[in-house]
Every structure is written in structure tokens, then in C-alpha cells.
Amino acid sequence: MRTTVGIIGAGPAGLFLSHLLHQRGIESVVLERRDRDYCERRQRAGVVEHGVAEALRESGLGERMDREGFRHDGIELRFEGRGHRIDFPGLTGRHVMIWAQTEIVKDLIARRLSDGGRILFEAEATAIEGIDGEHPRVRFASAEGAEETLECDYVVACDGFHGIGRSSLPEEVVRTYDKVYPFAWLGILADVPPSCDELIYARHDRGFALHSMRSESVSRLYLQVPADTDTADWSDDRIWSELATRFELADSAWKLDTGPITDKSITPMRSFVTEPMRHGNLFLAGDSAHIVPPTGAKGLNLAMRDVMLLAEGLDAWYARGEASGLDSYSEQALRRVWRAEHFSYWMTSLMHTDPAATEFEHRLQQSHLEHIAACEPAAAALAENYTGLPHV
Ligand code: FAD
Ligand code: DHB
């Protein structure tokens, strides 16, 4: 099988890249080891940055997001039993969209298929070869179990943290950086209308909690839990009671509504960066190259930004023979990646209870939160990063 750009992974990065390339007249094939249903159901991100939402609209994928998603103009930081609103448009002129990754993936798959795109589900890439030459290829096992080869000009690994893309870069050119946090998130989906109009990020001595949403009738909530937590130890009652405690307000009748929990999962917390994001004719994009802890809501957005940049580079190359966009891809993408890494680490440290923190560090954290609540430039720095920096 032959194509121009061979893409591994049908997550948001691989699918959006394939869509953007199609709109620029560049052919691609997407290899995905899971089936379509699995890709469309995997519960993950919910916040889309202003600029990424714009890019979805410009590429013809904004219609359902604007009809069924929510535009959010702020978030609430809740600590010491009090809430403090961060006003995004007032501080930055931008907002975010609450629009689930599952819905972005559904729309992208439907659109690629109706545009005649090729997504091979249940096709697992097993090796990437020839990236230093002119004819790179991806070996894969097809849904029927046959060994096949995809030949292309370029391979883009959008195969997530556990894919084969990153480990296909030669060891001597790669450097990785990482940090593992001593806690995880227990995430739930529940059939209950959200108890708030905007997301609540709560810091409590018992740990962090986040109230997000998926629709008028479905809430998405997260609890900080120890890293080795098993969901079996968390009954629905225990989850609701812990959430209610962490969201409690000192002087308000606000209360958390509860309902049937339909999904429970644990997300480990990690920061991770691979440098460079290109070697020869192999490019990395999205979680295959970098991971952020989810507190800043940056993972999906970074993945989308990587492929927006790469699509421009490939377009300049095929339309005008200009290689500069491809040559600067890694450096440019990494500038944004490191900014998001810092912001995500910062938000995580600000909001979570580190079991190893000293009383001194705890007081620093409290002072930092109070500063953000009281000082507009400090709140603006948070809002700038959260809604997405246009210039990085
Ligand atoms: P993935 O979505 O991981 O897709 C990779 C694909 O490659 C998968 O479909 C996989 O099956 C496939 N694959 C892997 N190996 C192979 C192979 N060998 N052959 C073929 N296919 C292969 N981000 C945000 O921006 N905002 C948020 O609010 C947010 N919240 C999150 C909450 C949770 C609970 C979690 C877990 C993540 C969250 N994220 C958030 C992060 C976000 O979901 C990820 O960063 C995003 O999925 C990255 O997209 P991707 O396309 O790079 O990788
Ligand atoms: C969601 C996830 C996040 O990591 C976050 O910071 C905000 C919202 C969500 O899944 O809705």
C-alpha cells in the first residue's frame, strides 16, 4: 500500500492531521490498532482552547461544537471554602469551549470517511523503517491478521504515549525529560445535571477536586487520589461524599447534586517531553512526544496544535517546495510544548495536596492562591495560559 503521509494513530492528532492534509490536497492513510467504537468512546479531555476551537471551525468541524458544546468565559478556583472567579474575556479577550474529545473524534472519523479518507481500524503498526532514506515505510498487522506495508514520503506517529513512534527514533538523537507525581485522578461520568455553570477547580486539605461537564444532563468530575488507587475501593457513595467535602463552601447554600455514575477511571499524573520531535522522515505529534498532567487541560490542545503546525509545513513543501516549515517543526512545536508543560506543572502544584509537602510549602501554596484571587496580573497569567497563548 502506498500513500503520501503515513499516519499512525486515530486519536485527535492523527485524525485532525489527516483532515487538514486532505483539505490541502495531500493524501494520507491512518493506521489505528483499536476499533472505531473504542476510539469514539474513550473518555478523556473536555476543554478546547480558543484558538483550537477557531481552527476546528475554519476546517469545517465547528458546527456541532457550537450547537451542542458550551462557551465558557471563566473558571472558579475554590479554596479555604471560598470561590474566586477567573474572568477569561476580561483578562485576555479569549474564552474556551467545553466540548468532549469523544465528540471531536466522532466528527473527525465521520468527516474523513465521508471525504473518502482511509482509516484502517484494527491495524496495528509494528515497525517503522527507512526513516533516514527517501522511502520510509510502516509495517502493520491488518484487521485480518495479514502482515502489510504502508509506503510513504513521511511517517507521522500520532500513536500516543504507548505507541511505537517515539521508540523508533534512534537512541543517540533522543533526549527525554519526565516527572511522575505521587497522585492520580479518579474520573467519573455521571447522569446528573452539572451543579455549576463553569468549571470548579477546588483545592482542599484532603486533595484536589474538579467539577466539569459534558452536557445539560451529564457531569464529569475528578478527585485527586493516591497513585496506586484501585477504582474497586471507591463505591459511588464514597465518591460523592468525598466530592461534596472537597467542594464545600463556608458561607453558601451551594450543594453538589448527585446521580448514577456511568464510568470510573484512574489517570496517572505525569509530565514527559521528547526532544527532538522529528528525525529524518519521521515526525512525532501529540501524546507520542509529550504528556502533561491534566490540571491545565492542555493535552488535547497541544496534540491539535502540533498537527496544525505540521500540516502547514507539509503544505508549504508539497505546494511550493519550501522545506523550512518541516525543518523548524520540532523547534517550534517544542516551544509551545514547554510552555504548556510549565503551566500544567504549575497548575498541578498549585491545586493538589502533595503528601510529602511540609507545612512551609503548604503555606506557600495558600499564599500563591490568595495572590491569584486578589491580583489581576496574576489571574491574567493563569487565564492567558488556560485559554491558549496565541503567540507561542
Ligand atoms: P491518543 O488520543 O492517545 O491517540 C493515540 C492513538 O494511537 C490511539 O487511538 C491508539 O489506539 C493508537 N495507537 C497506539 N499505538 C498504535 C500502534 N502501534 N498502531 C496503531 N495505532 C496505535 N487534554 C486537554 O487538552 N484538555 C483536557 O481537558 C484533558 N483532560 C484529560 C482528562 C483525562 C482523564 C485524560 C486521560 C486525558 C486528558 N487530556 C486532556 C489529554 C488528552 O486526552 C490527550 O492529550 C489526547 O488524547 C492526545 O491525543 P493524541 O491523538 O496525541 O493521542
Ligand atoms: C476536563 C479535564 C481536565 O483535565 C480539565 O483540566 C478540565 C476539564 C474534562 O474532562 O472535562
UniProtKB/TrEMBL annotation:
InterPro entries, alphabetized: FAD-bd, FAD/NAD-bd_sf, RIFMO-like
Q: Which residues form a coiled coil?
A: none
Q: Where is the FAD-binding domain?
A: 2-344
Which is an annotated GO molecular function term of this record?
FAD binding
The region annotated as signal peptide is none
Pfam families documented for this protein: FAD_binding_3
Q: What is this protein called?
A: 4-hydroxybenzoate 3-monooxygenase
Origin organism is Streptomonospora alba
